[in-house]
Amino acid sequence: xxxRQCFVVMLTAWLMSLTFxxxxxxxxxxxxxxxxxxxxxxxxxxDLSRNTTYQVFGLKDPDRVVIDIDNGKLVQxxxxxxxxxPVIGSVRYGNSESGTLRLVFDVKEKVKLRSFxxxxxxxxxxxxxxxxxxxxxxxxxxxxRANDKRELIVxxxxxxxxxxxxxxxxxxxxxxxxxxxxxxxxxDIMNKQPGIHAVLTRKGDYFVPLKKRVDLVRxxxxxxxxxxxxxxxxxxxxxxxxxxxLSEQGATPSKIAAALxxxxxxxxxxxxxxQDETVDNPTVRNILGDMAKRDSLNSAQMFAxxxxxxxxxxxxxxxxxxxxxxFVVLGALEVPSVLIELDYISNPAQExxxxxxxxxxxxxxxxxxxxxxxxxxxxxxxxxxxxxSNE
Length: 391
Ligand SMILES: [Zn+2]
Hints:
There is one protein chain. This protein has helices at 2-25, 175-191, 210-219, 255-265, 267-271, 290-314, 348-355, 357-377; strands at 28-37, 41-48, 54-59, 64-69, 72-74, 88-95, 101-107, 112-118, 126-133, 152-158, 196-200, 224-231, 242-246, 323-325, 337-344. It is an alpha/beta fold. Zinc ion (ZN) is lined by residues 159-160, 166, 175, 229, 264.
């Protein structure tokens, strides 16, 4: 009996050593390399078959960025750099004798580097993220009109982007595409109105961390903040828009709203942020007294009511009343902020609508009308402002 046990232990040890040596020697497959171009940086994302060690550094004459991946092997001669990028010129790669895969990115301007490894998440593999940070920042300065009378500023936040597609429809439409289209259309309508200026927190297909979105809203000194999303659930027949505001610490939001907030707040983990870019508590940077805070939250709820009333005219509504939850992106407490789920992208019929430019325009116009009604109610603008047609 003893001999048999001993044999089993030895066999197990031998099998384990085989497994480990196999893992140690198998190449790390580099399955894809993606680029996301933001105004202030370009992000390179490298998909790996498993965890490994790597080095990222810059070299001069000519300026280039090097990524060394230990034991790496490029399996897909991926179509790196099909699109033009303002920072990266060309890409080369090759393996050294020691088995290190070297990716070399020629850069057109001086950049600062930062990189981090993302663990597998939501179907995405281990990823090395390298940000090439540009010197100029792509942010807008607060707008002053010629007569020094400040314009009303509306921050429009297109949810998700870049590595984070958001919800995905049955026929492949990505939430990040819809949110950007509607956000841009809404900004266009707003910017045609004298006295109103729209600021977009995201202008293209790249990821913006939730904390940075909140910072952009604050920096723009926004009077209103509108975050645009589209939801997905398993039941494909579910449809309709819903609108949310921030709930205070201690408030008891509905379970459904809390689950939605958790889903939206996961954007950072999927899109990829460094530790210092994350926020876990939207009320941490509370710069308002209790009265002002309550006032701002009440205003946001009033604004949310206006939006539901307008969206009801152009489509389906999921909940007649706005709901509250702890959405990180609504963290600029001093700015009346709402988060809109335009519809359910998981419903194929609604997905088709959300893809349609004319329907997107209707949604944007409805949100614009609600914004105007709200600003009028708050006494911030006078006289009726009707959306100017796009023609
Ligand atoms: Zn979303």
